[in-house]
TrEMBL record:
A GO term, aspect molecular function: hydrolase activity
Gene3D superfamilies on file: alpha/beta hydrolase
InterPro entries tied to this protein: AB_hydrolase_3 (IPR013094), AB_hydrolase_fold (IPR029058), GDXG_lipolytic_enzyme (IPR050300)
Chain ranges of the Alpha/beta hydrolase fold-3 domain: 88-297
Designated name of the protein: Alpha/beta hydrolase fold-3 domain-containing protein
Pfam families: Abhydrolase_3
Keywords associated with the record: Hydrolase
Length: 323
């Protein structure tokens, strides 16, 4: 089998500064992620001039405070509008162990600028300092806050979208499951190369993986470190916290879904299986598998006048508008 990889992406990955992360060392991995994300997500991706952000805190289920940012084309989210809008609740990626809303602010602002739909970005607490179920409950607390303040924020409570990439997509799926159980309506979920399977931690002995390995931005060892950190308490969890690994989950309860996977990624099979789970239970799914792209490809291609990247972003924008 011959590996297909986007030529522009291949060039960036082969020349990327910083070297490979230490896959079994949380401190080293966080340092590497900070360096890469700070450059690509804050310096390469430009911040739209027509989007403003407001920072505030909400109270989590355990009484702690969670930072959130509300991005909109209004200077103030409490500014009076004539009609209610949909709203995205966005969860950043980072394997549940790295990342924050600040580093993703330019990307989330792009979604707002392109669609006019505001975003509530959630700085959920990270493992292993805050293992499951804390990140999932933080996500639900943000949803509950938005739902209870829809009138003040001029948000349509029937048009709430859960969105995330990587672990953020896994978190969005968990929050959707909790919302179904706890009675908050979700209109749609937008899941970008989701990190879902806590058992996907061992490298298969395959030619396919050997070809992909030099271009992987997220590896099996990193996945193991992340899930070991997230599940460090080793207690029994509510099935809704990890629906992908629950054999009894009712997939029919999930909302309409927009789902992307990429082929140069150990998480591609996670997304494919999720697609099957949803469609076999009559959930409407728009599914895209992007050939030759890797996990976290967006900022790596942002410096290019790249028609493929623009096409992908346009599909995401349309998915937001089609809520």
């Amino acid at each position: 089998m011959t590996l297909t990889i986007n030529p522009s992406l291949k060039n960036v990955l082969e020349n990327q500064k910083g070297g490979a992360p230490v896959e079994n060392d949380l401190k080293a991995l966080r340092k590497h992620a900070d360096k890469i994300e700070e450059h690509y997500y804050k310096e390469v991706i430009t911040k739209p001039s027509d989007v403003a952000g407001m920072q505030f805190t909400i109270t989590a289920h355990d009484g702690d405070q969670i930072e959130c940012r509300f991005y909109s084309k209004d200077a103030d989210p409490n500014q009076v509008r004539t009609s209610k809008l949909p709203c995205i609740i966005h969860f950043h990626g980072g394997g549940y162990i790295t990342g924050d809303v600040s580093r993703y602010s330019h990307l989330t602002s792009q979604y707002v600028s392109a669609t006019g739909v505001p975003v509530l970005s959630v700085d959920y607490r990270l493992a292993p300092e805050y293992p499951a179920p804390i990140p999932q409950e933080d996500g639900f607390s943000a949803l509950q806050y938005l739902y209870e303040h829809c009138d003040n924020l001029m948000i349509d409570p029937n048009k709430i979208i859960l969105m995330g990439d990587s672990s953020g997509a896994g978190l969005a799926l968990s929050v959707a499951a909790l919302a179904a159980e706890r009675g908050i309506p979700i209109a749609k979920q937008i899941l970008i190369y989701p990190m879902l399977d806590s058992n996907n931690t061992e490298e298969p002995d395959s030619e396919d993986l050997k070809e992909k390995k030099p271009y992987l931005t997220w590896t099996h060892r990193m996945n193991k470190l992340a899930f070991d950190s997230l599940l460090s308490e080793k207690e029994e969890y509510e099935p809704s916290l990890f629906p992908f690994n629950d054999p009894n989950v009712d997939w029919s309860k999930f909302p309409k879904t927009y789902l992307e996977t990429v082929t140069v990624d150990i998480l591609n099979d996670d997304g494919r299986q999720l697609h099957r789970n949803l469609t076999e239970n009559n959930v409407q799914v728009e599914f895209h598998e992007w050939e030759g792209l890797c996990h976290g490809f967006e900022p790596l291609l942002w410096t290019e006048e790249n028609d493929l990247l623009q096409n992908i972003l346009e599909k995401r924008y349309q998915a937001i508008l089609d809520v």
